[in-house]
Amino acid sequence: SYSFCTLLLSSKEEFLRxxxxxxxxxxxxxxxxxxxxxxxxxxALTLGGIDFEDERVTFEQWGAxxxxxxxxxxxxxxxxxxxIGQSAALMRYAAKISKFEGRPLYPTDDALLxxxxxxxxxx
Length: 123
Description:
Blueprint: H1 4-20, E1 27-31, H2 39-47, E2 53-56, H3 59-65, E3 76-79, E4 82-85, H4 87-97, E5 99-100, E6 103-104, H5 111-122
Parallel strand pairs: 1-2
Antiparallel strand pairs: 1-3, 3-4, 5-6
C-alpha cells in the first residue's frame, strides 16, 4: 500500500523525469564569465548530458538586465518560463535531473545521504 510520502516521492520523481523528457524544458544558466558559484551547476548539467545555454554576462550587461529579473543577483537559472536563483538550489536541481552511470547525481531515495550531500554542498 502506498503512503502519502510514497505518493509524494513518486510524484517528485515523475516531475524530475518530465522536466527533461516529456516537456523538454529549456535551461539557461546566467553568470559572469568566471567559474564562481555556478561552475558546479555547469559541471553537473554537462556530466548528466543535459543541454543548456550557458550565458556569460559582463558586469555592465548584468547592470542593464538585473532590473528586469528577480532575484536581483547571479547566478540565475531559467527553466522554461521560471527564473530561479541561489547557487545551492540550482546545484541540487541540476544534480537531481542529471544522471551519471544511470544514477542521479543527487540522492533521491535516501534522505540521510541527501542531507550529507547538502552539508558538503552548502558549506
